[in-house]
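New to this. Help decode both lines:
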Amino acid sequence: MQHSEETLEVIGARVHNLKNIDVSIPREKLVVITGLSGSGKSSLAFDTIYAEGQRRYIETFSAYARQFLGGLERPDVDKIDGLSPVIAIEQKTTSKSPRSTVGTITEIYDFLRLLFARAADAYSYNTGEKMVSYSDEQIKELIINNFTGKRVNILAPVIRARKGHYAELFQQIAKQGFVKVRVNGEIQDIVVGMKLDRYKTHDIEIVIDRMQIEQNEDTDKRLAESIKTAMHHGDDIMMVIEHDSKEVRFFSRTLMCPTTGISYQNPEPNLFSFNSPKGACEHCNGLGTVNQINEKKIIPNPKLSIKAGGLAPLGEFKSSWMFKQLEIIGEKFGFTLSDAIETIPAEAMEMILNGGNEKFSVTSKAAGVTKEYKIDFEGISHFIKNQHDESGSSTIKRWAKEFMDEIECPDCHGSRLKKESLYFKILDKNIADLSQMDVSELTIWFNELESQLTDKQKAIASEVLKEIRARLQFLMDVGLNYLALSRSSKSLSGGEAQRIRLATQIGSQLVGVLYILDEPSIGLHQRDNERLINSLENLRDIGNSVLVVEHDKDMIERADWVIDIGPKAGRFGGKIISEGTPKQLLAEHTLTAQYINGEKKIEVPKTRRKGNGKTLKLIGATGNNLKNVSVEFPLGKLICVTGVSGSGKSTLINETLYPILNEHFFNAVKKPQPFKKIEGLEHIDKVIDIDQSPIGRTPRSNPATYTDVFSEIRTLFTQTPEAMIRGYKAGRFSFNVAGGRCETCEGSGVRTIEMSFLPDVYVECETCQGKRFNRETLEIRFKGKSISDVLNMTVDEAVDFFENIPKIYRKVKTIQDVGLGYITLGQQSTTLSGGEAQRIKLATELSKKDTGNTFYIMDEPTTGLHFEDIRVLMDVIHKLVDKGNTIVIIEHNMDVIKLADYIIDVGMEGGKGGGEILCTGTPEEIIKNKKSYTAQFLRKEL
């Protein structure tokens, strides 16, 4: 082995499926770990090296601090030497808070706030004039110069346009020794018991001093004292009124409008923060959107009566207080609850929705009796809104949200800030204007800014500008030039979020750190790959070690050192099959090497499918950056949607097309982005979106339960002779219901020990030794195996074991077909990678009986997949399409794009430069296009 100073030594790693491996990784180099999906790459990079780095970091804290952080398990490894501080940049670590934006994550917004607090000019929101502020000395000079030889009153404003009778205020003023006040423009003496009309708005100023202004020492002294007193009482604002002409002038120590006298506090950075009460818009609390009741959601079908459930929040008639009130409203306006809602008079509907409070009497014609009624009704809309705003329960909030729409806040128009904050400007742009520009536009604006500032502004801002420019450049370098700073981090894709964190890290310019990245090329077009690799090399060159888990060919070829883990996946992986420079790798003939040097490749099909001749047409899509796009999807084909990052692919497919189809087939609630119309829905019968979100969030979920093969296996066990004798039903073999499961651990196989201040610890259940079931259940055997043994089988073993049972065989065979033969049926879903979860969903869909008219949508299914895995995946997808289904894939991977029957290329650039359809057609037609970036890279493949 090399001298240990230059290498990171990992000895005896056994985490997950690693087979006691030793590996030495050169430091301050760009190292790529590659291998099949599920072979143990992440186990080595994240679960061993990163986990140990994290644990050592936490060990350095005091015992007091550690009790709040929780002890991190030591990964199962004999020893790790030469480990520097570790920073992991994964895909799933961005915050889902609505307050987090691209600007706040990259810290660019923080620098912008500083810039605006120190170098911006304030303008009045009343008149648009520039605001002014004076020191006491300047105010004195101004008064002497403007009013020499004239009599003036010096006043301190205390009340501005507020209602009230102010009796106590006048008493207080008199106690302080003042004798006159100016009320609503009239100077009056203060008298005992003085008070005003409490329902009108008033302006009140204290008369501090009345004097003749002369150019002498006495005036000077007296004026300085008066100014000081007036400022004290008027909260840093004072007024001067000339006695004869009654002309008013305002003076202020803070920023103030010279005409109307409104003042702003001196700007601090938090005045521009939408996460601080000082800067946030008060109506939407700095979120930029507010929830508003949508009456169409409360009354989805006006033809129904109230009794039949026409008011969605109330449901069908039951004898409750709510319906009693509605009946009384009916008495007043002359309708019954069985009338269709559209026939109910408008004023009655107004009362039902918005409430009312009155008494009335109704005389019965037959008996001549008068009945008194009292209505005290909150109104359904108000009730929902109150539940949403006041309720502590998240379930009730969710319920209320179903009847509301999220709209842009009417006060701040989505800028999230107070009115005052938006009137601080630099070169006529406020901070919200800058946040809404693309990074590329913003970079140009900042590069031209310095030449247009005043000398004073330059002196203040030069350092801040340097930081902002550098950080914007890093965002440009990782290919995110199309994002705006105001973009919410919730709406970022995994790859984008990861590259933002990468840009932030490059911006912090740390040295001597080990960076571990998980497939940074996800969601990045080949064109931008070069820039990304340059950024990583830049990180390496300033003195950091960079460790990347990656399948991208370019990245592997540019690395200084490549570690290939294999030979297969799951329990058949976990060994190092080659390590060395990329040249050494190519000589090794591992699977990875064979794909890179062209010995193996994914073949281009001889002919492209013709499809079934029908099309689905989406017309006039204008969401986000789409420029009124109309696009045809030929059905019965494999369609690829391509284009550079940020060009509008996801907006078109995931945010417009999928919600439209979902709403049509399954009445989903998510609103599609705006579009004009859609044609051809009658040609398909359902839509399925197969994404990379986890298939289950609890350890109880596993591939067997998700694909529903477990139900079939349980049914099979109930049919064994022993189970029939004992009368066991299917529930006996479920670990989620009482009966057959081990009750100590409630069927999870592990016991959770809750530690106060520490994370929960999972230990194997001592009653069932992790088998999940009780002794009696485990006595039932099929072909010598108990239900617990079946859950511990790999899919490959299960395929042989169940080959004579068609129902089970079909389902486990499809899991094997998507290349997941190595996972066990009972493996916890939480331990599956994104690519694995996605393929399990695929397998579930494949095993269903299909009609051949299904529309599948997949977003980058190749994430986390090795070349070999992509081949397997594409075989499966071809099977689906051969049955007549349509599959739309959003993809950057050329191996997938070259297999498509039809390509829709969106471009040209990302962000505002995108949103148009560049070209459509077969790959052979696309490569003739001169403008398309995809075409340039596709030519090499074909």
Notes: The mean pLDDT is 90. The CA atoms of residues 423 and 780 lie 76 Å apart.
